[in-house]
Amino acid sequence: MANAIPTPMGGFFTNWRQNIIYIGFVLIFVIFALTLSQKGFLNPTNLLNIIRQTAMIAVMAVAMTFVLASGEIDLSIGAVAGLATVTVAMAIAVAGPVAGVLAGIATGIAVGCFNGFLTTKVGIPSFLTTLAMMGIAKGVAMWISSTAAVPILSPNYSWLFGGGSIGPIPVLLFWMLVIGAIGHFVLRRTGFGRRVLATGGGETAARYSGIDTATIKFKVLVLSSTAAAIAGMLYAGRLQSGRFQLGEGDELSVIAAAVLGGTSLFGGKGTVVGTIVGALMIGLINNGLILMGLEFSQQLIARGAIIILAVALSQKKA
């Protein structure tokens, strides 16, 4: 035949910019494995700790993929996680673990509806809406907890939501995989996922094609806050307490994970699998830099440089 049939491996390297997150993850893992083997990088306990430290970021990043793909952004996601840890812990103290779970989910839905209403009905850009909500959520969490940690004394809740393990495998890994699988299926295999991508790819064209773009944006903002609340429930279970500080600053890592994974900040493009790998890559970098013995300031510089490089390589047009 005149034209050669491209092989899957050939296509992988031909589209290397689209696959930079996977190439970068493997490359960084190999470098750390070779240089930090004596410091326990490859120790199963250390690798599982990376999962434990990354799972909450990954859960929130899955939802952030939908938000960014729709052309919006959510800066309140870390603060909502912190608020959820407090409402969960307080509800468990009063009425038990079931009430705690319901309180956590209700917190996320309520915040998401508020963000969605202001963005789609009032017309305030989501950047400003969620930036304001970041402060409101943190303030409410500090107020209702009196800035003190609220202990969680339910072993069953703590085991199921972050603190438990099945053999050597942390429960957090199952949470990350299940939520990632659901997110991937919804984005790639359902009409809702296609409408999210169409909305972010061209809102005017999407409206002319019959898509209710305002409803789509409302739903993804509710989804984002609900995922933040679930991450907060996992934080609370793992640390057996609710604290307003939990989740603080996570919005930066969450957005970075989604963008590293191939989701466009301008909408219309997103991949949940890439987002999960992006979250794991950030956890990998954090862990490796700590084992290197770098000072915190040096870790920030190195982590930022690596993320900028990876994003630049993946976003640049061929």
Question: In terms of topology, how is this protein built?
Answer:
Elements: H1 8-14, H2 20-35, H3 44-69, H4 77-95, H5 97-122, H6 126-145, E1 150-151, H7 155-163, E2 165-166, E3 169-170, H8 171-189, H9 191-201, H10 203-208, H11 213-239, E4 241-242, H12 250-260, H13 272-291, H14 296-315
Antiparallel strand pairs: 1-4, 2-3
Radius of gyration: 20 Å
**Mean pLDDT, as a whole number?**
89
> In CATH's first tier, which class applies?
Mainly Alpha
Q: Quick one: how many beta strands?
A: 4
Proportion of β residues?
A: under 5%
Poorly predicted sequence stretches spanning 5 or more consecutive residues? 1-6
Q: Oligomeric form of this entry?
A: single chain
Structurally, the number of domains stands at: 1
CATH topology: ABC transporter involved in vitamin B12 uptake, BtuC
The chain-level structural class is mainly alpha
Largest sheet: 2 strands, antiparallel
Number of H/I helices: 14
Q: Give the distance, in angstroms, between the N- and C-terminal Cα atoms.
A: 28 Å
Proportion of helical residues: over 70%
Strand order of the largest sheet: 1-4
Brief characterization of the structure:
This protein has one domain (21-315): ABC transporter involved in vitamin B12 uptake, BtuC. It contains 14 helices and four strands.
